[in-house]
Amino acid sequence: MGSREPAEPLSPGDATQNSARPADRHGLLKHSREFLDFFWDIAKPEQETRLAATEKLLEYLRARPKGSEMKYALKRLITGLGVGRETARPCYSLALAQLLQSFEDLPLCSILQQIQEKYDLHQVKKSMVRPALFGNLFGVLALFQSGRLVKDQEALRKSVKLLQALAHHQNHLQEQPRKALVDILSEVSEATLQEMLPEVLSTDLDAMLSCPEQLGLFLLAQQKVPSRLKKLVGSVNLFSDENVPRLVNVLKMAASSVKKERKLPTVALELLRLALKEDKFLQFWKGVVEQGLLKLQFWPASYLCFRLLGAALPLLTKEQLQLVMRGDVIRHYGEHTCTAKLPNQFKFAPEMEEYVGTFLEGCRDDPERQLAVLVAFSTTTNHGLPVVPTFWRVVRFLSPRALQGYVAWLQDMFLQPDLDSLIDFSTNNQKKAQDASLHVPERAVFRLRKWIILRLVSLVDSLHLEMEEALTEQVARFCLFHSFFVTKKPTSQIPETRQQLSLPLESQAREAVSSAFFSLLQTLSTQFKPASEQTRGGQPWTYRLVHFADLLLNHSHSVTPVTPLTAQQRQAWDRMLQTLKELEAPSSEPRAAAFQHLLLLVGIHLFKSPTESCDLLGDIQTCIRKSLGERRHRSRTKAIDPQEPPWVEVLVEILLALLAQPSHLMRQVARSVFGHVCSHLTPRALQLILDVLNPETSEDEDDHVVVTDESDERWLKASEDKSEDSEENRGSESEDESDGGESEEEERDGDVDQGFREQLMSVLQAGKALGGEESEDEEELGDEAMMALDQSLASLFAEQKLRIQARRDEKSKLQKEKALRRDFQIRVLDLVEVLVTKQPENVLVLELLEPLLRIIRRSLRSSSSKQEQDLLHKTARIFTHHLCRGRRYCHDLGDRVEALHGQVARLVEQAGRQPDSSTALYHFNASLYLLRVLKGGTAEGHLHETQEELEAGTNPSPVPEGPQAAGCLDLNLAMRVYSSALSSFLTKRHSPLTVPMFLSLFSRHPVLCKSLLPVLVQHITGPGRPRQQACLLLQKTLSMREVRSCFQDPEWKQLIGQVLTKVTENLRTLGEAQTKAEHQQALSSLELLNTVFRTCKHEKLTLDLTVLLGVLQGQQQGLRQGAHCTGSSRLLDLYWQAMKTLGVQRPKLEKDAKEIPSATQSPISRKRKKKGFLPETKKRKKHTSQDGTPAATGGSQPPSTGRKRNRTKAKGPARANGMPSTKGPAPGTPTLSPSPPAKSPKLQKKNQKLSQVNGAPGSPTKPAGQKKHHEAPPKKGVLDKSPPSTLARKKARPPLVSRSPSLLQSGTKKKKTQLRKAGKP
């Protein structure tokens, strides 16, 4: 980098490479690498890295304040000011500023002189002018950022002169030097500014108004030293008519300069303050802003006006606010808010929200100004719809008085809309459309009223903690009154009747108010804290609103309902109030509050849907009386009048009817009520819920509950949105229509059936337009015949079009009904979730398994839409987390034991028939849940029958105790069911069952695992897939503590022995794998073998491994031959891991073969050596005797390590043939195979020498009849008849079978003890 850019400092790497040069001009050799790396980290783009490097550099220099490092650091940072990389210059400038700030003894004039000498504009080359200019600029900025420049007068004057000189190079630096000059002078004292003002400020007015920087300098002097400025330039009126165009031009330039930063230019804010100070705000706002900048049709200038509006809010009085907030700026802001809707468009609304929030937070003691600003933004409308959203976060800063005034203004505007007071506008597209329906006053009133009512509800929703209770009640009463009542004449007892509507409420507007009221009711009922959920009287808000509605009904001469109540409906209302009074009495029933909430909510719905609510009220009151009047300990099995359904069934039907309504509040109330009554649930009541959830019946038959369509409410909103966006998106709509027309044509062509084709052929033949081969010479049709044919064809195609449209409508209707049904099922699942979470011990919970599984199966098959996905996720969550994994479950099974056993078998069978594993997992988990229920359940008949069989002695299988106690579970039946499933899993190629399923079964029910393990052991030696799956499953099962606890020690030892026998049989074909499947089988067998070894080591079992070792050693040559095959490394690792457990170390044969050349190597190949290896003459040779044999043990033996050498020496003769040096196994140690007969020392020595001659490095003795494999090649430098060296004898570790016939029979400590005993003479 330093070689490419002469001005950039050298890197540490370059410094190292150039260290051999005669002259070290940078003095890099004196500094450490750590110090040099600081400067590279300073220039990195990551801010954290730069700051950390700067801090480390300062700490490094503080430790050496007077060393050469300081001088080098200054040179390096000054050099970095003019590097070619633009991103690195500010980094070096900031680091230099922090350095000067930390070391105040460094003179600024000296630093500035070094900068000027380094970047002298008169001496640099032409190609280096730009880096030199930036070096000077960033040097001055570093001095200024250090905070010391304004205190040093000499350095300040030199810096100002340098900036003035740099200001002439606008091609490279643009206006940056002038901006820096204004920033510096804004920090100096008034005395210094008075002295320097004639040098920096031009006395020509045209020059001052030529650029934002010159105007900023003038405004700075006007603010700090107005007297000195007046002496220099005289009296200047910036806001005169002739100066206004110049100001507009300057502000336009300032707006363009901050286009990327998106901030308010300082010069614009200073102009605003100067206009306010000189009492010329009106001229500035009208002339410069509204008539100047807004007329430019330049978006940066418009954004400057918006920012000026937001910044001016705290500075203006109430009268000035009213002037500004009703001008062209706020109207233009409204147009921008309405048109900037695309994702990639810049939206100013969030920035304006910050301005308004700052203003409201800063003037809480002035509620009038707060109210003026809020009203002004609320009256900026597009055809009656305000541009601000109904949920605006800035209202949280309102004072209580301003909030109360704002609510009063909203209510007055709702009752008597004043369209003339609105700042209404139309967008350009709306003006071009010239649609007369958009300018109808009724439409504007409807849009305004809908926004106002939603605004009132959002105020309560967002300010329910800060809002006064009286104001909340006022808003709730207002919404309730105008939702369902109309004023006949005013009355003092009802404040809502004092001010009547200037324009009557239309049906659409009243539906919008009603919807907003129930949204408010949900907020009052659910989102409030428990302390604020109730009013001062201790009653819920719903109760208070019901009493207000009763008050309105009693004043029939002043108020009348929109939908008058019949006598029957009024009686239902009165009975509801009477029931509420009864529920208010002190009662120990916890469900009384839930019933009260349900009654209140249904009672209010009486005004919305009188017929349905009247019937529900009667049924609810009957259920309440029966529920609260019955005895607490009454059994559910008590005889019930067959003519009258139980009250809980009626209540469940009511809750289902409420859930069918599109109301979140109804949904929550239904959950609450059902949670209190689910303990009284009957099978018939549960069946009512399951009928809704049953996919088969709900698809074909009509539900007994009519699902309410939300299209009426959605249509209102959709129509509004469509009317708002229709003018904005006409172009896109026309494209969509053309695309839709093409798709319609394609669909119409696809919908043509054979009947239509035949009709078309008959019409053409009747009109003689479709002639055959014989009609070629006939005359053409006449005009009348052609007209008749056209009419026939037109009527035929019209009929076909109607048929196609009817089919489309039918298809759309079916899809809509399906969506409504799915939505209803999702809401009904709330009741299932409540039952499972609050009554998990209820025996009816067991009836939920198969219905939930049916929903999961169907949703997994057709889970394309979002509703299907939601239904699937909710059902799976309830089934998995609340049901199968719940801590509590049913214990009292009664007479369901036999049925549950059948259900377990059915679920396991269904799991094996599923198309995929995900569906099978749910069925398998359901069977495990039923096993847990049966295992922990109690049944009187079952226990009594077992006791009788035990007393009579007819039960051959005693009841298991301890961990094997199975409760009501029939272990034999369960074992048969899961044994069949396990066999199917092991033998079936594409089985949906998986290994984790059976591992979950084994861990939860280890008693079954004990019975199923023989099936796994049987399949270890089976074909490909059964062997691999059985080995994998058995490998994970043997490590489970739960499974081990079910076995006695002899049983466990027998099982391990059986597994070893099967694995040994598999390993006889080790190394012969030809296919990938056979290779996987070998891998699984070795993994299982290593798992068995670990289990034996942990359990300290004693097993005979002689045959296994022989089999493994017999396959060693085959593994060597296939060592270069794909995937063989893993196989070799597992093999030698097992051999290491048996005491055989893995030889390093390949490495020796590569490094040591063989005796038969040709001379040509000897010459081609790898670079980097020592020649043979340089290698260290072993100490040999004169005849070439290694030195014998004795005086000429090389020095040893003493004790370890002696121990090895003592053990060597005894272990040379692989025999233990002890006299025999310890007394009492179980031995499964006899040791080989001991040999004399001479015979051992002879065998040792023979093995060395053959090249075997001290391999253990093998059983008779076995051939020796895995022989090592002879090593260079070792003669045939030489005895083994000390290292060879040390590496020749005898196997465990040679030392002792048992595997890890007495642990590590016992082995060490035996070795120490063997070392003693």
TrEMBL record:
GO MF annotations in UniProt: E-box binding; RNA binding; transcription corepressor activity
InterPro entries: ARM-type_fold, DNA_pol_V/MYBBP1A
Comp. bias regions, Basic residues: 1165-1183, 1202-1212, 1308-1321
Biased composition (Acidic residues): 734-752
Residue ranges, annotated region (Disordered): 1-23, 697-753, 1149-1321
This protein's record includes keyword Heme: no
Cellular component GO terms held in the UniProt record: B-WICH complex; cytoplasm; NLS-dependent protein nuclear import complex
GO biological process: cellular response to glucose starvation; circadian regulation of gene expression; intrinsic apoptotic signaling pathway by p53 class mediator; positive regulation of anoikis; positive regulation of transcription by RNA polymerase III; regulation of G1 to G0 transition; respiratory electron transport chain
The UniProt record lists the keyword Nucleus: yes
Principal localisation: nucleus
Keyword terms of this UniProt record: Nucleus
Subcellular localization(s) per the UniProt record: Nucleus
Cross-referenced PANTHER family: MYB-BINDING PROTEIN 1A, MYB-BINDING PROTEIN 1A FAMILY MEMBER
Family under the similarity heading: Belongs to the MYBBP1A family.
Name of the protein: MYB binding protein 1a
Annotated organism of origin: Cebus imitator
Organism lineage string: Eukaryota, Metazoa, Chordata, Craniata, Vertebrata
